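Assemble and predict.
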Amino acid sequence: MTSASAVTDSPAVSDRDHASGEAPRRNPVILLVDDEPAVLAAVARDMRKGFGGRYRIVRAGSGEDALEALRELVRRGEQIAMLVADQRMPGLSGTDYLVDARQIVPSAKRVLLTAYADTEAAIQAINEVDLDYYLLKPWDPPEEELFPVVEDLLTTWEAGAALEAGGVRLIGHRFSRATHELRDFLSRNRVPARWFDVERDGEARQLLKVSGVQEDRLPVALLEDGTVLERPTVLELAERLGVAGQPASDHYDLVIVGGGPAGLAAAVYGASEGVRTIMVEREAPGGQAGMSSRIENYLGFPAGLSGSDLTRRATDQARRLGAELLTLQNTTALRVEGSGRIIELSGGGSLSASTVLIASGVSYRQLEAPGFAELTGQGIYYGAAITEARACADQHVVVIGGANSAGQAAVYFSQYAVRVTMLVRGKSLTRSMSQYLIEQIEALDNVEVRTGAAAVAAEGDGRLQALRIRNADGSEAREDVDACFVFIGARPMTDWLAGVIARDDRGYILAGLDAKVDGWQLPRDPFPLETSVPGVFVAGDVRARSIKRVASAVGEGAMAVSLVHQYLAEA
Ligand SMILES: Cc1cc2nc3c(=O)[nH]c(=O)nc-3n(C[C@H](O)[C@H](O)[C@H](O)COP(=O)(O)OP(=O)(O)OC[C@H]3O[C@@H](n4cnc5c(N)ncnc54)[C@H](O)[C@@H]3O)c2cc1C
């Protein structure tokens, strides 16, 4: 029994834990709530059958009882993996219950049980409670209708829980650029790690004492094998963790530059179609999409999905199909040697290929105002910097920009920060942002949108403390700000291709008939995604006149592989 009002009906610890002889660890909880006893019993029976070995199934007969049980479970330090709620209940409806439950356990997956007639309510709930899935009753047979969906959600939850539970322990100052870069690297490369702020976490000082590290040697990374790395660079840490890797071969059919959606799609399609493929990524797979807190318009995910979830799925898929992924390597030059295409790497080596796909996307534009460069990583961040979200609790956050990426960030940080101010240069959001996001922002009490406003300076001693803001009426004021996230557009980083590949005047790469420039040497026209160098293709945001969307980047990545086949067949 969990509380007077909730019932547990699967073992508190898994068989595996008993067998290992170690102190048993309690299984995470799946909490079910339905006011109809027969339906509750049926869903509990099926969940027990599918997941009872790994999870504890707890039942409650009303939303109120479930909330009480949830508070008690959290007080006891239990992990809550998933909440499943019926929509139609007297008193608290399923949606209202999930709104309250989300405050208590924000990381638990949320599933609504609905009858066909309640589908509208379920779709509404996607925005209201950040719903992960709605399940239509009845879910028969459970092996087809229930288990795959629940398994998928639990795998995603487990991946997040594992990241927070173990591995590397990183100790540093929150407003230190070096610490921020290491945290960002660990999080974006999905390395299980725990982060300790030396100013806030008592445990941090204890760990430093035990490891014999002085506070002026921060940040420090404590690895699982006992290694202590004082002030490591990202590359040093990556190498010690085996994240960076080395190419397995010296020649490939296809070298992909960039691991965003376009590059990952090409890796999946290339590897699955027998093309020897390697993808080179300078930071972490996922690209811009990997930094999105929630992608709402990607086909097939009605409840949206986070960029990190999409990245995890795509990276696993590419690896499983046999693509090699080489991270923390920048490509620095492209050379043409007869039919070979040589890519130089920042680590000093090079890769030889029959074909190359440039999928290097775009990078954030820096805000050129006094103080911004000095305070980057110390309260000023480019992109959503999801690692910083929790630290923004009870703080004032400013988001600069008026496009979808800024809107998503404002919605995301509003869950953590006490107040979010959006500074938008234009007169309104309508020209730059999708309507669904504008509506979400309007519904949030703690988000203020200031149009015609700009940040003209950042101030702070070692960390951001205030912004000077110019308002629409021309007045200027200094405002206390704890963190500022900048989204003011992006540009392609293609200078390393100058003189080799034809680009437009902004650095975007020309493709297809646009790439048939002086010096094009083949009797045929370039293929649609082919650049001015035969056998070198381009996909995604870095292509001139591309549509800046995840789906189009993925589509172009897949299409490029089919053109690679055509090219290789002709060669
Ligand atoms: C915060 C945010 C939210 C967004 N939300 C949405 C959304 O909801 N829906 C939507 O459709 N679109 C969204 N977008 C746009 C979408 O993410 C992009 O259109 C998409 O990611 C482009 O994919 P890409 O693969 O072309 O390039 P990118 O995603 O830019 O990836 C390029 C990759 O190449 C790497 N790279 C660059 N140069 C090199 C080099 N020389 N060597 C090695 N690697 C290199 C980079 O590190 C990067 O990882 C969002 C963008 C942002 C920033």
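The chain is about 30% helix and 25% strand.
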